[in-house]
Structure formats: structure tokens, C-alpha cells
Write a structure and sequence with these properties.
Layout: E1 4-7, H1 17-26, E2 32-37, H2 49-56, E3 63-68, H3 76-82, E4 86-90, H4 97-106, E5 110-115, E6 133-137, H5 152-165, E7 172-176, H6 184-190, E8 194-197, H7 199-202, H8 207-214
Parallel strand pairs: 1-8, 2-3, 3-4, 4-5, 5-6, 6-7, 7-8
Length: about 220
């Protein structure tokens, strides 16, 4: 199988995000990963709906919007209107998770649930029927350029088995944090279908080379 590559624009030049998205699109990205942080759920502050709406004009690729924010249900409609195609919320930030992911789907977007490294995968058990994506954080969220947490490979494998056992093979597993060509094969073998990478892709000799090196056949 071919893994999908979702470059994270967290590592792009924020003064030229539109151009960065255009270049990633031309370089062969499958999705554009947009990290949204509120300075509360994680210790960083990034992108809001107006910027996503502006980026929507620069690519026809799906915008994969990862909400690392408190009370995400308050803002889901705004991000969907801005152009988000996939909206992922954190298990740890949602008191009423099933209601939140249903809201995302009702708005016409794909619904994802993210797990921090210390959150056990068993917490997903009762939500599999309501989601399209599981996002495994392989670093602690908030900043780019962190080192990969190796136990994430086992976590991906456990989730893939649980999804298969539940008859939910179509649910994609996405991995975000410290992803490189060195750990990509193990992640894909374990069951990951989408790899998010920021600093790795942007530090490659070219964006195309960075993306291509993660695409496992």
C-alpha cells in the first residue's frame, strides 16, 4: 500500500504560508496538515479560521485540521466553514466526545480523534463507529521538531487490530510527531495509513524528496 503523506505547515515560514501550501501541493503531498493551538490545551498559539480560509485558496488538497484546543465543539463550525475537510479533536479535551465527532460529520467533514502519548488506546473502544481517523501523537503536542516516542509503533498496531476486530478497517490511522524515513516503515507495517511530518519534510533538500522518502510501497 501507499501511505499518504500530510506535511505539517507548523514548520513552514508563517510569513509565506500560501506559497508553502502551493509548493507542498506541487511536491506531491496528499493532504495539508494544519495544527491549531490555543495556548491552553498546549503551550503554543497558532492558526485560526481566517488563516485556514486563506489557505483554502492555495490548494485543492484536503485540509487536515488538528484542533489542539480546549472546548473544540465551540469552534468546529467555524473551522468547517473556513474549509477544513478533516477535523480532529483530542480525546483529552472532549467531555462529550461522541457528540463532538457527530457534529463534525453532520457538517460534512471527516471526524478524527487524537490521543496524546500517555492516553491508552482502549479509550477509543466506544467511538470507533463514529470516526473516520485516529490520530496517534508520537510526541507530546505543542511544538514541532521533537523526538519520536518509539512506543507509538506498538500503539498503532494495537489500534489497527482493534479496528479490524470491530469491522472498522476503513478507519485511517494517522501518526504525528517525529516521523522520518527511518521510522515510517515500522509505522506503516503496524497499520498507519497517514504520516504527518513537518520539520523532517521542510529540512529535506527539496520538499519533493522529503515527501517521497516517507511514501512506503
Amino acid at each position: 500500500m501507499f501511505v499518504q503523506v500530510a506535511p505539517s505547515i507548523l514548520s513552514a515560514d508563517f510569513a509565506a504560508l500560501g506559497r508553502a501550501v502551493e509548493e507542498l501541493t506541487s511536491a506531491g503531498a496528499d493532504l495539508i496538515h494544519v495544527d491549531v493551538m490555543d495556548g491552553r490545551f498546549v503551550p503554543n498559539l497558532t492558526i485560526g479560521p481566517p488563516i485556514i480560509a486563506a489557505l483554502r485558496e492555495h490548494t485543492n488538497l484536503p485540509l487536515d485540521v488538528h484542533l489542539m484546543i480546549e472546548e473544540p465543539a465551540r469552534f468546529i463550525t467555524d473551522y468547517r466553514k473556513a474549509g477544513a475537510d478533516i477535523i480532529t479533536v483530542h480525546m483529552e479535551a472532549c467531555t462529550h466526545l461522541q457528540r463532538t465527532v457527530t457534529m463534525i460529520r453532520d457538517l460534512g467533514a471527516e471526524a478524527g480523534v487524537a490521543l496524546n502519548p500517555a492516553t491508552p488506546e482502549e479509550t477509543l473502544k466506544y467511538i470507533y463507529d463514529d470516526i473516520d481517523v485516529v490520530l496517534v501523537m508520537s510526541v507530546n503536542p505543542g511544538f514541532g521538531g521533537q523526538s519520536f516516542i518509539s512506543s507509538s509503533v506498538r500503539k498503532v498496531a494495537n489500534i489497527r487490530k482493534s479496528l479490524n476486530d470491530a469491522g472498522r478497517r476503513a478507519v485511517q490511522i494517522e501518526v504525528d510527531g517525529g516521523v522520518t524515513a527511518g521510522n515510517a516503515p515500522n509505522l506503516v507495517t503496524a497499520g498507519a495509513g497517514i504520516l504527518v511530518a513537518g520539520s523532517y519534510i521542510f529540512s529535506a533538500p527539496t520538499l519533493n524528496e522529503g515527501i517521497r522518502s516517507l511514501r512506503i510501497k
